[in-house]
Amino acid sequence: MIPYDLHIHTEFCGHAPGMSVEVLVRRADELGLETIAITDHLYAATGLPLLTAIRAELSQCSHRCRVIVGAEVDVDGDFGDGRLVTDELSACDYVIAGFHYVPTVGNYPHSPDDCTMPPEDFLKLWRTALLGVVSNPKIHTLAHPARIVAAAVNLDDWFDEVLMTLAEAAKVSAKNRIAWEINELTGSRLSDYYRQRWHVIYKIALDAGVKLVFGSDSHSPEAMGQSAFAEEILSRFPPGSLSTPDEILNR
Ligand SMILES: [Zn+2]
Ligand SMILES: [Zn+2]
Whole-structure pTM over 0.85, yes or no? Predict the structure, then answer.
């Protein structure tokens, strides 16, 4: 079992019903997790009071586990350079970059049909934006690497090109000490074929010297503690390939 989880949402985000701070820390204690990070979505600079609200709820509950208050900060979908929706992140103890939107178009692609630009154009923009994201030293971790690509283009046609871009991004990530997240939720978004190949992305990361960190991306109490997809990926690598929370936070 992975003794921590650095990617957990709360009901503040609007799509994680039942995930009050009290419920999720109680669940973390039941599971025996040593460290968790509450990383709700930050969709815009105006969302920063969210962190204050989470800290206020946290101060009202007792818990054994160490709780880090961070955020999954959106990559700004209005631009193609990978900037985050805000640079004012001093209240955020752990910053993960959530790349969710088609750059410059700004929509959330559920399938290649939702991507209104040709795949060649999307992949060019994705590359530029991704390299921008991993150049931002305020970011600790790149959330769910390449999940957006798996949604926006047909991987059967583009997987090799995607891996080449990821290799470029891994070099930049290593330089800026930005970790890559092994994200449990991504496992449920992939076909069997790519679920079994997703480890190649983390091989690219490890070879470039990028640290790996685990996050469940839980939006419900039941999802917490689940790590089958992540553990399958990690089983392909030497013991110790997964970094500890302190290695990620005290870089
Ligand atoms: Zn996300
Ligand atoms: Zn998330």
Answer: yes
The CA 26 to ligand 1 mean position distance, Å, reads 23
Per-residue pLDDT reduced to its tens digit, 175-185: 999 999 999 99
pLDDT of 14 reads: 87
Residue ranges and CATH numbers for the domains of the chain are 4-249 (3.20.20.140)
Helix (H) or strand (E) segment spanning residue 70: strand 66-74
Q: How far does residue 133's CA lie from ligand 1's centre (Å)?
A: 14
Ligand showing the shortest atom-to-Cα distance for residue 8? 2
Closest ligand to the CA of 223? 2
Smallest CA-to-CA distance from 173 within 212, 199, 147 is with 212
C-alpha 191/C-alpha 145 separation (Å) is: 16
